[in-house]
Amino acid sequence: MQINQELKTILLASLILSIVFGFEDNSNNLNLQIYLANLIKFFILSFIALIIHNIIQKFYAEKVGAITEISLWSSIAKVKLFGKRKMFKFPTGIVAPLLVTFISLGQVFFAATISTETRIKPAYRIGRKFVRLTEYERAKIAVISPIAHIIIAILLNFFAMPILNDFAQVNTMIAISTMLPIPGLLGLTVLFGSKPLYIITTVFIL
Fold first, then answer.
1. What is the biggest distance separating any 2 CA atoms in the chain, rounded to whole angstroms?
2. Can you give the pLDDT of all 206 residues of the chain as single tens digits?
3. What residues pair up with 88 in beta bridges, in sequence order?
4. DSSP single-letter state for residue 27
5. Closest to 64 (Cα-Cα) out of 149, 136, 148
6. For residue 28, which of 95, 120, 188, 196 sits 20 to 30 Å off, Cα-Cα?
7. How far is residue 166's CA from residue 18's CA, in Å, rounded to a whole number?
8. Does the model's pTM come out above 0.85?
């Protein structure tokens, strides 16, 4: 059930990212066929990048006795209706990337679409000093995927192939965007868990 829900999240996030990266195709004249092909290309590249993101995060989390679950990045919003305050989830992971894309006419890439929840399984923590995850452990789980994205991007830049350069760009922008210290994103988890780790990782990514 969790796998199906996470797959739906990745598919939706990939759709958003296909618009983010494919909005501006650098062509003088609009050719619908070429434009759609460009969107499909970035959908596939984004899907692969997010799958890698999820797998690496889960693999490392399991090593430290935890499990992770991704969902669409959302924020809790409060509105007043008929004199009563209501709380609802605002789809930040959809609105923010698309808003930045449309305002900048595709010149600025903001690729933060998913959020990660980390929790433990008590059986995994048997024999460890702390039953609960420390903030530093959460920070290490959070930072592993952005680092992996950058390593992939660095390796791909050695190849002079447009499709691989596009994939490198997707990985780079996902890493940069998710490391911003904003509620719901990995960057804030890393910053709270370890400021030195956040600074070192940010310098490495940039």
1. 64
2. 566 889 999 999 999 999 999 888 777 777 778 889 899 999 999 999 999 999 999 999 988 888 899 999 998 766 665 667 777 778 899 999 999 999 998 899 999 999 999 887 666 656 666 567 788 889 999 999 999 999 999 999 888 788 999 999 999 999 999 999 999 999 999 999 989 999 998 988 87
3. 77
4. -
5. 136
6. 95
7. 12
8. yes
Residue with tokens 């092909």: 37
Cα separation, 177 vs 101, in Å, equals: 13
Q: Which of 93, 183, 200 is nearest to 140 (CA)?
A: 200
Residue type, 146: P
Q: Give the single-character DSSP code of 134.
A: P
d(CA 72, CA 68): 14
Q: Which residue has the tokens 């930040």?
A: 92
The CA distance from 64 to 197, in Å, is: 17
Between CA 67 and CA 162 the distance in angstroms is: 36
E strands present in 73-203: 75-81, 84-90, 114-120
Only one residue has tokens 């933060």, namely 112
